[in-house]
Design brief:
With 304 residues, the protein is an alpha/beta fold. The longest helix has 17 residues, at 182-198. It has a six-stranded mixed sheet with strand order 5-6-7-3-8-9, sandwiched between helices. It is built from ten helices and twelve strands.
Length: 304
């Protein structure tokens, strides 16, 4: 399998102070139902954000407003410096979108489809070289295969290629690795990091895979009840929630486990008491899933 690791970089643009995403008091109402009740967040150029939340929290609505596909009820939104409600074709050419699934273009061959889609970007920016793109997403052995003949994982790789064919400044990823095997998922994670680090691409990711969000995102946003209830790195959110860590060790051949909110202090006290008797010490901090569930329980408890 070809590694998803070769990302061509474009010449750096002059740095700007304006965030890639600037969302202030975003609101959306359907009839009498307020889906978004004042969503506020920003994203810097080259930052990877994960937008998490339970079903019905408003994630899809938020993303569709940012992409310019849905009109908001109120609030201020700037995407790459533009109000998405007034986005031009040149503005749209700076966006990349990887939907949860595509079922179109079944009769096209992989390379032909990507070359065709890339041609739409020529007037606005320099698209990927089609062979380089096919190699980057690991589809070189399938470049001349019809899309309808691809496996689920191969189809997902093509979805990613479609999303980045125009070298976007901002990339929206909706459940991007659904259907990927573990090796393909690791390669995709490497591609995301390279897009952000080398091409300065801003990435907004939605996923139900919290382990993936923790590995990919610089910052986690948790949306619940139509508002952002948490905003920070996985480590910051864990500290804010004082979520327990597990300390595991062996002494005199016996295994011990202890939960604590201050693992550093506990380990220090442990060595002060037993010193060299301690063996096989492990500290397992709370996962993003633990923190996520704790934050939702806290929010739901306060909302009652």
């Amino acid at each position: 399998m070809t590694a998803m690791s070769q990302v061509a970089t474009r010449p750096p643009e002059p740095p700007g102070d304006e965030p890639a995403l600037d969302v202030r008091d975003l609101r959306m109402r359907y009839g009498a139902n307020d889906v978004l009740k004042g969503v506020t967040f920003q994203a810097a150029q080259g930052e990877v954000l994960a937008l998490l939340g339970p079903n019905g929290a408003g994630k899809t609505t938020t993303i569709e407003i940012l992409e310019g596909f849905r009109m908001r009820s109120a609030g201020e939104v700037r995407v790459l410096g533009v109000d998405p409600a007034r986005g031009t074709e040149a503005w749209r050419a700076r966006l990349g979108i990887v939907l949860q699934s595509w079922r179109d273009h079944g009769k096209w061959r992989v390379r032909e489809l990507l070359a065709h889609l890339g041609s739409y970007y020529v007037d606005h920016r320099r698209p990927w070289d089609v062979d380089e793109l096919v190699e980057t997403v690991g589809l070189t052995p399938h470049a001349h295969k019809r899309v309808s003949r691809l496996s689920g994982g191969q189809r997902r790789r093509l979805d990613v290629a479609i999303g980045i064919v125009g070298r976007p400044d901002l990339l929206f990823l909706d459940e991007p690795t659904a259907g990927f095997d573990p090796e393909a998922r690791r390669e995709f994670h490497d591609l995301v990091h390279r897009l952000a680090d080398e091409s300065d691409t801003t990435i907004l990711l939605t996923t139900h895979d919290l382990d993936e969000a923790e590995k990919l995102a610089d910052r986690i946003l948790i949306l619940a009840g139509g508002t952002i209830i948490a905003n920070g790195s996985a480590e910051q959110l864990s500290r804010e929630m004082s979520t327990d860590a597990e300390v595991r060790w062996t002494r005199d051949g016996q295994r011990y486990v202890h939960s604590t909110t201050d693992a550093t202090k506990y380990v220090r006290e442990l060595f002060a008491q037993y010193d060299e008797e301690i063996e096989d010490l492990e500290v397992r901090r709370a996962s993003l899933e633990d923190t996520y569930m704790a934050l939702l329980r806290k929010f739901e408890g306060g909302a009652r």
